[in-house]
Structures are given as C-alpha cells and as structure tokens.
C-alpha cells in the first residue's frame, strides 16, 4: 500500500520548508528575556492586538461575566440585561480598584468593593456614595472605559484599542479557509491554564512549527507526515496542515499498519474514543482502505455516540490537522471532529508565562450551553496528553538556555517561518529601530 494515500500534499510535492532562503533568519535572543523588551510589548503591542479571552459559553446569559487578564491588563467581559456583550477595562473610575475578579453569573450591577461606586452592566455610572464630597461630579463623565469585544465561532476576542480594525479583518483568510469545519458547533468543556517558566513567545514558538516533531515527539512521528505539511503565511495569521494516520517519511522503510495505528492510539486515541492499547481492528478494514480510513470510520462512530453526524466528512477531513496561528499568541488545531485552541500570555516577569488550552468537543446543533470548567495548575502537575506534556516539560530548559551569554541569536529556518512571521509582526507593533531587528534570511534561491 502506498504511504502517500490520502495525502494530497505529497502529490503536490509541497513540504514544510518550501523554497529555502539564501541564509537563516537571525532573531536576537534578548527579546525572550529582557525586561525592557517585555515593557515595550506591554506598552506598544498588547494594547493593540485582538486576543482570545474566553468562550461565548462563559458569558452566554445576561449577568454572566468573565475577567480576562494579560500581563498587567485586565478586561471585564459582561453580558448585559439587553443581551449585548460588552467589555470594559477592569478599573474603578474612583481610585482604580479592580471591579471584578474571576468569572461568574447573576451580576445585576458592577459595584466596586472599595467605596461602592456602582455602574450598570452597560457601564453607566449609577451611584456614588457621599457624592456631595466631590463637589460637582457629573455621573456621565465617569462611565466604565470600554474595550472592544467580538465573537467568532463561539470564541470571544477582546482588544483594548477601541479604534482597532474589526476582528474579521484581523483574522484575514482564516475564517474562509476553515469555514467547511463549522467550528461554531464545537463547545468548550474545560480550559486549562498552566503556569510555566518561559516567556510567552517561547511557549508560542512551540506551536508554530513542526520541525521539532522528529526529535521531541518520537511517538507522534510514527503517525504524522511532518514533511508534507505545507505552510502558508497571510499577515497576522498563518497555517500549517499535516496528515495524521500515516507515518513520517523520515523512517527508513515502512512501518506496518499496526505500528502506525498503535502510535495514533497512544498519542491521540481519545479523539476516536479508543483506550490505550486498543489493537488495530484489521477486521473492520474494507478492501482498499488505509489506516487513515479505519481511523476516520472509528472517529465517525465515536462522534455518533455523542449524537454528532460526521457523514459529511471524508477521511481527509477527519485525519488532516489544520493548524492556524493568529498573532500574537494564539493557535488552533482543527479537523472535522477535533478542535483545540491554545494561547500563551505573559507572566509576572519575562521568564514566566501562561499556556492556556481550551478543550473542545463537537456537539449536535442545538445542544445546551454550559459554562466551561476553568482549571489552573503548575507545569509539574499538568499532563494534558503525551505530546503536550513533552512540549511543556521542554520549556524551562529552553528559557534558561536563551539567557546564556554566548547565545546571541535564534537561527531560524523557513520551516520555522510561522515563528519568523510572529517576530515580523512584533517588530512592526514595537516599531523597533533597524539595529534591533532580526536579520532576514535574504531572497530565496533556487537550488
Ligand atoms: S476605588 Fe472604587 S469606589 Fe473607590
Ligand atoms: Fe510539540
């Protein structure tokens, strides 16, 4: 059987590298740990970009609220009595106290816990205790300061810049490219926030390239074609897609179907409801079918147990992982029955950050909306599957290595071009002077 089956990228001869550049791209290492650089990000980048904050199910009902934090910034997202979703900077107009902490339901008004200034859910100031002490204080002068909030496919994004371009413009080609997948039918059952000893970019880089699979994820390599994984860059956004259920061509010779199946079950069997150690169901394979076809059939059957019809999805729709990156800090990985959203956020200093995972499942249309369970844990406690655990456990050593005095630059390949693109966007927002910019790899050469 041909290992290229179900892998159109191979027949198109597209790989993850594309056309090589003349030389590597060199990115100054300092930007991964310098407090001054982190301060510049906080001043010039974070207040300007769209960021995924929560799921629409966190704020589905009037009175539901969610406090989003990113570095020093706090945004309060609240569903008004009128059903409108609004966002505000989370600061009392009196002396700045944070108005809400965490998330919850049943909010009727927004009352500061310090001296009691109170706003309605639309951000209009309603009450100021002992108001006469302020002299002539006009209530209309002190509404809550608004932030932008928009929802795409059930994902709530915020932007502190009220003049920012709309979210759908920011997302560029992504919504059209993934429209076939009906992402809005996925519901988030849990969010997992992991505190890690790494810069937010160190975290994000890990989910912006497939170059590391062959070394860091040896089990995964047995069931993904990491070579024929073409990438695209739009502007703020980019994409890689990778066929699963086939071996990497890096192995000399062929793995058996059983070996590919075992690796898939071991690394992501849960996607088709297969417990660890589930043997290859050779008897289920119809004449001419590949391992991918068997995985697709099992995935369809597993979806059916949740009332989800996947008959519209062929083998490629179920086994090809479509991974999108949205600047600065978000990625989502999708196929017909899988959606995982990840983002990274700055921690208290440049050597710390948060990795946030939104765990989703496709439900039948019309399924009730329930709030996700929000879980927070340390990197040593977190074991979100064999592959992600490998990613998380690498981070502290990676962050420490970046500090070494002899390590001045990251040396990047075009295989890592989504990392390069993140830096290109970052430099644009920070308006870095020329000497502090990365050194471009130069024009492509035909080899
Ligand atoms: S700080 Fe909020 S009422 Fe004083
Ligand atoms: Fe990884």
UniProtKB/TrEMBL annotation:
<keyword id="KW-0411">Iron-sulfur</keyword>
<keyword id="KW-0001">2Fe-2S</keyword>
<dbReference type="GO" id="GO:0051537">
    <property type="term" value="F:2 iron, 2 sulfur cluster binding"/>
</dbReference>
<dbReference type="Pfam" id="PF00848">
    <property type="entry name" value="Ring_hydroxyl_A"/>
</dbReference>
<keyword id="KW-0479">Metal-binding</keyword>
<dbReference type="InterPro" id="IPR001663">
    <property type="entry name" value="Rng_hydr_dOase-A"/>
</dbReference>
<dbReference type="InterPro" id="IPR036922">
    <property type="entry name" value="Rieske_2Fe-2S_sf"/>
</dbReference>
<dbReference type="InterPro" id="IPR017941">
    <property type="entry name" value="Rieske_2Fe-2S"/>
</dbReference>
<dbReference type="GO" id="GO:0004497">
    <property type="term" value="F:monooxygenase activity"/>
</dbReference>
<dbReference type="GO" id="GO:0005506">
    <property type="term" value="F:iron ion binding"/>
</dbReference>
<keyword id="KW-0560">Oxidoreductase</keyword>
<keyword id="KW-0223">Dioxygenase</keyword>
<feature type="domain" description="Rieske">
    <location>
        <begin position="52"/>
        <end position="158"/>
    </location>
</feature>
<dbReference type="Pfam" id="PF00355">
    <property type="entry name" value="Rieske"/>
</dbReference>
<feature type="region of interest" description="Disordered">
    <location>
        <begin position="1"/>
        <end position="23"/>
    </location>
</feature>
<protein>
    <submittedName>
        <fullName>Benzene 1,2-dioxygenase subunit alpha</fullName>
        <ecNumber>1.14.12.3</ecNumber>
    </submittedName>
</protein>
<dbReference type="GO" id="GO:0018619">
    <property type="term" value="F:benzene 1,2-dioxygenase activity"/>
</dbReference>
<keyword id="KW-0408">Iron</keyword>
<dbReference type="InterPro" id="IPR015879">
    <property type="entry name" value="Ring_hydroxy_dOase_asu_C_dom"/>
</dbReference>
């Amino acid at each position: 059987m041909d290992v290229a089956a179900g892998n159109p990228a191979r027949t198109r001869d597209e790989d993850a590298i594309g056309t090589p550049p003349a030389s590597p791209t060199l990115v100054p290492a300092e930007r991964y740990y310098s407090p001054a650089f982190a301060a510049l990000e906080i001043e010039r980048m974070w207040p300007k970009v769209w960021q995924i904050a929560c799921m629409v199910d966190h704020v589905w009902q009037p009175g539901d609220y969610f406090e989003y934090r990113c570095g020093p910034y706090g945004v309060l997202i609240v569903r008004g009595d009128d059903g409108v979703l609004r966002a505000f900077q989370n600061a009392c107009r009196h002396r700045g106290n944070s108005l809400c902490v965490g998330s919850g339901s049943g909010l009727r008004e927004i009352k500061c816990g310090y001296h009691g200034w109170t706003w309605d859910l639309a951000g209009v100031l309603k009450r100021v205790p002992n108001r006469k002490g302020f002299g002539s204080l006009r209530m209309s002068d002190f509404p809550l300061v608004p932030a932008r909030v928009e929802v795409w496919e059930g994902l709530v994004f915020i932007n502190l810049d009220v003049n920012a371009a709309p979210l759908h413009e920011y997302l560029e080609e992504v919504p059209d490219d993934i429209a076939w997948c009906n992402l809005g039918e996925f519901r988030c059952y849990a969010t997992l926030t992991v505190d890690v000893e790494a810069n937010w970019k160190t975290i994000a880089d890990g989910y912006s390239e497939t170059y590391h699979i062959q070394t860091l994820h040896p089990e995964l390599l047995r069931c993904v074609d990491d070579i024929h994984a073409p990438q695209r860059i739009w502007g703020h956004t980019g994409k890689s897609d990778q066929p699963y259920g086939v071996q990497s061509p890096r192995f000399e010779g062929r793995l058996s179907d059983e070996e590919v199946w075992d690796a898939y079950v071991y690394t992501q069997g849960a996607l088709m409801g297969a417990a660890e150690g589930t043997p290859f169901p050779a008897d289920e394979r119809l004449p001419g079918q590949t391992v991918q076809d068997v995985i697709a059939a099992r995935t369809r059957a597993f979806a059916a147990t949740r009332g989800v019809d996947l008959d519209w999805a062929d083998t490629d729709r179920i086994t090809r992982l479509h991974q999108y990156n949205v600047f600065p800090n978000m990625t989502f990985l999708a196929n017909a029955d899988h959606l995982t959203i990840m983002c990274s956020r700055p921690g208290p200093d440049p050597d710390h950050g948060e990795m946030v995972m939104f765990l989703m499942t496709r439900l039948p249309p019309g399924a009730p909306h329930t709030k996700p369970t929000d879980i927070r844990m340390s990197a040593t406690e977190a074991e979100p599957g064999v592959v992600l655990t490998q990613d998380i456990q690498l981070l502290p050593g990676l962050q420490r290595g970046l500090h070494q005095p002899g390590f001045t630059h990251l040396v990047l390949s075009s295989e890592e071009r989504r990392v390069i693109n993140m830096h290109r966007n970052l430099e644009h927002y920070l308006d870095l002077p020329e000497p502090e910019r990365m050194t471009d790899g130069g024009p492509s050469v035909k080899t």
